[in-house]
């Protein structure tokens, strides 16, 4: 075999140009013979499966644990999610948070589209109540969750964000349905709630009532007295009373002829 042929064969079998550079014909023939010998051994060798011995003394806790993992919806599934899948900072007093359930859902489903619809915006005529609908679409399912948020059902520290709270609650409810969980989410449990018949009227609501009264020619102080609220000034009203006054003003706005002279 010529030198050029030897080099060509060696190059075809993984040798590089640098490996062959400067080598004489005898050296090239030696390399080629070694290559042929190796190929012959590989061609006649039996292929057998590697047997991996099992250590009977090995810790089998992980294997046993995997054998007892419940499937979604089975008895014990909710406990498994709370105890094994959620991190400590994804729970509040043992109740799952919405962001923790979202993380688990994104791991379990390759497709997870979350859409939000504000069904009701907060205003004084509806007690500043926000209603939000959240829909979650996965590879093979579509679930929805609706929730509301207002002063009456929201912690004090979050009561100024009714839309955001309602959205988080609605998403949590949708995720609960998606993951087949028998529990509420932390955002649905409000602990620091002051009843509206005790909570002072918010300043923003008071300013709004004053503007509404001015628009229809009503004196707010007289209206407070007319509605028999035993307060010296409108600033002493409760949140609940403010909502009731807002409703009365709306009624007057719809029928101005019904406005009594006592409130003008």
Description:
The chain has 264 residues and is α+β, with helices and mostly antiparallel strands. It has three domains: 42 residues, no CATH class; 121 residues, Enolase-like, domain 1 (2-Layer Sandwich); 61 residues, no CATH class. Helices cover 44% and strands 11% of the residues. The chain has ten helices and five strands, in the order H-H-H-H-H-E-E-H-E-E-E-H-H-H-H. A three-stranded antiparallel beta sheet has the order 3-4-5. Strand 1 and strand 2 form a beta hairpin. Helix 1 runs parallel beside helix 3, helix 6 crosses helix 7 and helix 8 runs parallel beside helix 10. The termini are far apart. About 8% of the residues have low confidence.
Quick overview:
This protein has 10 helices and 5 strands; from the N terminus they run αααααββαβββαααα. The protein is α+β, with helices and mostly antiparallel strands and 264 residues long.
Total of domains? 3
* Topology as a string of helices (H) and strands (E): HHHHHEEHEEEHHHH
- Specify the number of helices: 10
What structural class do the secondary elements suggest? alpha+beta
Kindly provide the name of the CATH class of the largest domain.
Alpha Beta
Characteristic key phrases:
264 residues, alpha+beta, Enolase-like, domain 1, 3 domains, three-stranded antiparallel beta sheet, two-stranded antiparallel ribbon, 10 helices
């Amino acid at each position: 075999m010529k030198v050029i042929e030897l080099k060509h064969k060696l190059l075809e079998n993984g040798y590089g140009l640098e490996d062959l550079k400067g080598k004489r014909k005898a050296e090239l023939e030696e390399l080629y013979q070694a290559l042929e010998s190796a190929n012959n051994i590989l061609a006649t060798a039996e292929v057998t499966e590697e047997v991996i011995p099992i250590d009977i003394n090995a810790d089998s806790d992980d294997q046993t644990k995997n054998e007892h993992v419940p499937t979604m919806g089975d008895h014990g599934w909710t406990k498994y999610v709370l105890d094994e899948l959620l991190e400590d900072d994804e729970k509040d007093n043992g109740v799952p948070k919405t962001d923790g359930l979202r993380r688990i859902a994104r791991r379990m489903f390759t497709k997870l589209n979350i859409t939000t619809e504000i069904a009701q915006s907060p205003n004084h005529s509806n007690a500043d109540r926000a209603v939000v609908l959240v829909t979650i679409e996965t590879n093979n399912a579509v679930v929805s969750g609706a929730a509301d948020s207002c002063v009456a059902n929201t912690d004090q520290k979050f009561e100024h964000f009714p839309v955001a709270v309602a959205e988080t609650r609605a998403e949590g409810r949708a995720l609960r349905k998606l993951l087949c969980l028998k529990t509420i989410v932390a955002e649905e449990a409000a602990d620091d709630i002051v009843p509206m018949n005790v909570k002072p009227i918010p300043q923003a609501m008071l300013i709004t009532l004053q503007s509404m009264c001015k628009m229809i020619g009503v004196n707010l102080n007289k209206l407070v007295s007319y509605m028999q609220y035993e307060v010296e000034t409108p600033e002493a009203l409760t949140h609940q009373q403010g909502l009731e006054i807002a409703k009365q003003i709306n009624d007057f706005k719809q029928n101005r002829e019904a406005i009594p002279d006592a409130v003008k």
